[in-house]
Amino acid sequence: MQPIPIRTTRSYKMARVFPTDVNSYQTLFGGRLMAYIDDIASIAAAKLSRANTITASTDSVDFLYPIYMTDSVTLEAFVTWTGRSSMETFVKVIREDLKSGERQIAATAFLTFVAMDDHGRKIEVAPVVPETEEEQKLHDSAPERALMRKQRREASRALAEFLTSRYPWEPEHEAD
Known about the structure:
The chain has helices at 30-49, 133-162, and strands at 4-5, 11-16, 52-63, 71-82, 86-97, 103-116, 128-129.
C-alpha cells in the first residue's frame, strides 16, 4: 500500500465548557473529555483507513491541567503509526481561557483502532509518513508503545482468567 502523510489524518474538535459539563470542582468531567477523545481519534483513524474502525485500546489519557467553565477545549488527533490493520492515534487537548486567551496542553492520549470491513473482518491499512518534528517524534516512539500495549494486553487477559464473573448476590456454587 502507498504510504499516506500523517497530516491527511489530522482531525479537530472544539467545544465550549458549560455548567452541565463540569464536576463539583467546576472542572470538565474526565469522562466527558474521554468521550471527546475517543470520538475525534476515531475520525482520524477512519480518515486513514476509509473504513469502519473500532477502538481496540485506550493506552493512556493523561490529565495534565484542569479545564474550567471559562475555557474552550480543542482536540487535535492524528494517526501516528500503523500495524497491519491497527492504527495508533494521538490526541492533544488544548484548553483556552476564553477571557485571557491563555492556552495550554491540558491532556494527551494514545488510542489504538482497528480497521474493519462491512463484514467485521480486519482489513489492511496504509503506513503513515511523518512530516513535522512532532509527527516524527511520535512516529519514532510508537514501536515502544506498541510493545508495552502488547504486554499490558497479555497481563489483562491473564488477570481476566483469574477473575470471577459471578455477581456478589449469586450463590458461590453457580458457574463463573
